[in-house]
Amino acid sequence: MNHARERRAVHGIVLLDKPVGITSNTALQRVKRLFNAAKAGHTGNLDGPASGLLPVCLGEATKVTPYLLDADKEYVARIGFGARTTTADAAGEVIETRPVPALDVEEVDGALRRFLGEIEQVPPMYSALKHQGERLYRLAARGVTVERKARTVTIHAIERLALSATELEVRVRCSKGTYIRTLAEDIGGALGTVAHLLALRRTRVAPFGVEDALALDELERRAQVGAHALDAVLVAMDLALPQLAAVQFSRDSAYYIRTGQAVRTAGAGAGLLRMYDEQGRFMGIGERIEDGRVAPRRLVNWN
């Protein structure tokens, strides 16, 4: 008889340094399997050719996933000039070449400044967005192109890190939904040529940095030691929410919150809040409502 291994109720965030060559979903499934976790979700897709920070939420930590999906991201991107590809990155076929003008630092920095703030982007065909229920990249693989609506995204900062005759490396801090491949193409156009993304690494998903992330082989090594070695790297889920004010409840108030009732409490800010019980344990996300009480919105079940 085949007895499947019973999944664990494990709660927390794994800061994974995703390697080049696997999808975010493949990475997610490997982490879930290593932890033998009952539930898991990642916090923003990284394409297969990209590497870097991929926070993986396990168990009850999946309840903070939407807040990390909405968080600002930071990337280091290497852009190649002179060629445009089907996928806007190095994985695609070259479909256009153009000469690369002599580039100087001042000209490049001036072009980069033009992308600061709110900009309009047309999502690439090779993306996970859906058209009539089908992923765009599946349509693109069949040679089908459909019209995509431009979307407003925000580039908070863009910094030149290195420049050669045919390549540019930049650091970009941006809002959710920003396509760095599209940005690379647009930068090429601003400099009078065509371009594509040569390499991409995500270095930050606010408030987490890739310097604190672990590679898959390190997680696999810890799995050989035991579950306790894996659990030691879990990040507390409330650390994903530093932008929310914190409120701590008395024992009685915490009881009512856990039963789904709003309670009156002093000291909490407006809007969404991080909620803690009398022992300082994270209870989930609440909201200050119009009458001044705090109502639970996403409760954490530690059982």
Question: Would you write up a description of this structure?
Answer:
This protein is α+β, with helices and mostly antiparallel strands and 303 residues long. It folds into three domains: 90 residues, Pseudouridine synthase (2-Layer Sandwich), CATH 3.30.2350.10; 125 residues, Pseudouridine synthase; 56 residues, Archaeosine Trna-guanine Transglycosylase, Chain: A, domain 4. It contains eight helices and 17 strands. Strands 1, 2, 3, 4, 7, 10, 11, 12 and 13 form a nine-stranded mixed sheet that branches. Strands 14-15-16-17 form a four-stranded mixed sheet, with helices on one face. Strand 2 and strand 3 form a beta hairpin. The two termini are 30 Å apart. The mean pLDDT is 92.
How do the strands and helices of this protein lay out in sequence?
Elements: E1 12-18, H1 24-35, E2 40-42, E3 51-58, H2 65-69, E4 73-81, E5 83-85, E6 94-97, H3 105-113, E7 117-121, E8 130-131, E9 134-135, H4 136-141, E10 151-163, E11 167-174, H5 180-190, E12 195-205, E13 208-209, H6 216-225, H7 227-231, E14 245-248, H8 251-258, E15 272-276, E16 282-288, E17 294-299
Parallel strand pairs: 3-12, 14-15
Antiparallel strand pairs: 1-3, 2-3, 4-11, 4-12, 5-6, 7-10, 8-9, 10-11, 12-13, 15-16, 16-17
